[in-house]
Amino acid sequence: MCTLEKRGRIFILTIKGSDEHRLNPTLFDAIQSALHRVRAESASSSALITTAQGKFFSNGYDLAWAGTSTARRELMNSKLQSLVTDLISLPIPTIAAVSGHASAAGFILALSHDYILMRSDRGFLYMSELDIKLVIPPWFIALVECKIGSPMARRAVVLKAAKITAKQAVELGIIDSAHDSADETVDSAVRLGEELAKRGWDGHVYGQNRMRLFAKVLDAIALHTTESTQTRSRMLPLHKQARYQAHDRTLVVVLTMAKITAKQAVELGIIDSAHDSVDETVDSAVRLGKELARRGWDGHVYSQNCMRLFAKVLDEIALDTTASTHTQTQSWM
Which GO terms of the cellular component aspect does the record hold (predicted)? Predict the structure, then answer.
């Protein structure tokens, strides 16, 4: 299923074969076994590269194996959570050399690495859940939020189910670099791994810092594991983020109270496009609406995925409403 090769200070984990590398218990166990070896044998001056043979990095869960069995789906979810937790806690830098399509859970596997390099001659990144009528788990969303900084990029991934090429992924800030072939992708990953390994960072410190950087993901996994049957209102994040983050566009809008033109708003990533007149704006909106409507997405699934993407907003509204009610109650006492 997979092999683990050591080249000097670099571990290379390769998913073998020319199939779609669908994630099932057998493949999960093989990858985790390799990670356990890496954890046992690595030094502070090491790095891990994960790649795959063939046209696919991974095409997600093995849905044929799962069939209609809820127990099998839950088993796959549990094993993916365990694998992602292992990658986040691994005491060395990790690099995904994406050699082909990475879809759904396969995309999540790639995002779980510190760096992502991707071949540009074949393959795309694709969160397919919307197209196959599945609601995305909250912890998937937490990982997307941690690894994809642009709200527009997150929307393309979650609410548009876009098939993103390597070039587009670089432009959106999802991956670090694109390369002409699978071999060049792996070679570049090895060079990056060597560069990182030379830093000689303390492995324990590196792993702890990564776990703190991905605390929201680990919290979401813990909530999914221990409270999967609870209602959403009881699944508030364990660590609330500040209401306003110091992104450039937030500083421009909130702190300077700038009057932003359409052109500036495009450059800042606040809006999608600018048009010459009201009529052209409406016409373009109609064309986009028709394009989205043709996808035929399930409305319930779309709204659930949207609510999960904007969970922090809903949480803040709920907290603000609760605080206001408490204040009003006190004022009447």
Answer: peroxisome
- Rounded Cα distance between 177 and 118, Å, is 7
pLDDT tens readout for residues 169-193:
999 999 999 999 999 999 999 999 9
CB 224 within 8 A of CB 139: yes
d(CA 307, CA 78): 23
Residue 278 makes CB contacts below 8 A (sequence gap 6+) with none
- For residues 309 and 244, what is the distance between their CA atoms, to the nearest angstrom? 17
Residues 6+ apart with CB under 8 A from 224: 77, 81, 137, 138, 139
101 and 205 share one domain:
yes
Cβ-contact 88, 112 below 8 angstroms: yes
The CA distances from residue 287 to 133, 247, 262, 272, 294, in Å, are 24, 31, 19, 14, 11
Residue 233 placed within a domain: no
| In-domain check, residue 22 | yes
pLDDT, one tens digit per residue, over 20-44 is: 999 999 999 999 999 999 999 998 8
Measured CA to CA, the distance from residue 223 to residue 230 in angstroms comes to 9
First to last CA, the chain: 67
326 lies in some domain: yes
pTM for this predicted structure = 0.80
Q: Same structural domain for residues 135 and 277?
A: no
Q: Assess whether 128 and 46 both reside in one domain.
A: yes
Co-location of 59 and 201 in the same domain: yes
**Residue ending a domain, choose from 168, 192, 226:** 226
Token pair 């907003």: residue: 313
The token pair that represents 218 in the structure block: 């680990």
Host domain of residue 252: 243-332
Q: Is 223 helix (H, G, I), strand (E, B) or coil?
A: helix
- Asked if the structure places residue 50 within a domain, the reply is yes
Strands 47-52 and 94-98: parallel
| Residue 37: count of CB within 10 angstroms of its CB | 14
Q: What confidence category does residue 256 fall into, taking pLDDT thresholds of 50, 70 and 90? A: low
